[in-house]
Amino acid sequence: MRPTAHAPLRRRPRLALCLGVPLLLAAAGCGASSTSHAGSGSGTITIGMSLPLSGAVADNSKSGYQGYQLWADQLNAHGGLLGRKVKLVVLDDGFTQSTAISDYNKLIGQQHVDLLLGTFSSFLNLPVAEVAERNKYVYIEPSGGADSIFARNFNYLFFAQPATTQNLPDQFVAQIAALPAAQRPRTAAFVTQDDPNTSEATKLFKDQLAKLGVKSVYDSTYAPDTSNFDAIANAIKQAAPDLVVQGALAEDGVSLIRSFQKVGFTPKTLFQTNSPSDTSYPDAVGTRNTEGVLTALAYSPDAPTPGNAAFVSAYKAKYSTVPSDDAANSYTAGQVLAAAVTAVGRLDQSAIADWLHKNSVSTIVGPLSWDAAGKPKGSLLLAQWQNGKLQIVAPAAEATSKQIEWAKPGWSQ
């Protein structure tokens, strides 16, 4: 999901993040012992997942976990699923692929959970989706839109966002294309974390902007555990691009901005994936420094989609903050799973997958439907920080601000 960087977003003690998890693990034996069940049955329905509750991205994965918890609490308050209470069985993968694979194998083969929900990032979901497919478990992932995941044409995989990485540049590139030629950026720097999602997205930006005549003057990839971006920031400064596109996941976006401040470089236009949508982003970089930063969104707390206002209100009441993308994505994944199980009327993995391939689900991010490979058929939003608020600037029908600021102000120390 997200790497460690120089300035953490929402740094909290690890113990606080993991409170309650042992109780969930202790209940894991309550699950049934097969992946297909007839009838409504009795007892608790166990839903297994492995999340990065410790390690490099623990701070940012917390809101995703909270989205799952809120969904389960609300579901149980309304009678549960198929008339049975649900219990989340949560393991900690520490943002390590081998641990995530082991965890899902354990959830399926040893703890015999009834259902699965996904972990975070393409980095983890790519190998875990294969585990779910091999065991014929429906696998609804809250994040992880890299096209390489869907290229495998898994039957049991579904992505709980409106669109994938392939669509991420669409709105931004369309806005660049709409500018008069003299106002378009002439040069761009591309820098990305080594993650299937961000790497693919950054390459798409580069290729599509090149068709508009934007020349690449810098292109590099950094390791997920990179914490010092000074050398990268200085190299970008020397290249002097009009536009910087960063494939960031969270804290790496903050760290690059801090390094830009160190070396004294402000890009005319800055687009970052993921990081700017984190609720702690303004505190981490300084509210004035968010001004003009662009990003793509799968979700906005201000979106007028059915149930979204109620979700935002409930999340704020429970956690005293506005839900992040991660929280909304997890909640959405839960909505998708509950809708399919309810429609099928039994815990039958094949029937649940077949139903999802044929139907649309109403969620807080709007109606979701999928192609044969589990890719959603919707589109993303283009957003920009303006006057301390993340505004939707495209498409026009969903915009909360009618204009895009193309000239980024200088950094405030």
Automatic annotation (TrEMBL):
Pfam families: Peripla_BP_6 (PF13458)
Entry keyword annotation includes Membrane: no
Official protein name in the record: Amino acid ABC transporter substrate-binding protein
Origin: domain of life: Bacteria
All copies of domain Leucine-binding protein, residue ranges: 44-388
Signal sequence residues: 1-38
Family annotation (PANTHER family): LEUCINE-SPECIFIC-BINDING PROTEIN (PTHR30483), PERIPLASMIC BINDING PROTEIN OF ABC TRANSPORTER FOR NATURAL AMINO ACIDS (PTHR30483:SF6)
Keywords carried by this UniProt record: Amino-acid transport, Signal, Transport
Family as reported in the entry's similarity comment: Belongs to the leucine-binding protein family.
Keyword Ion transport part of the UniProt annotation: no
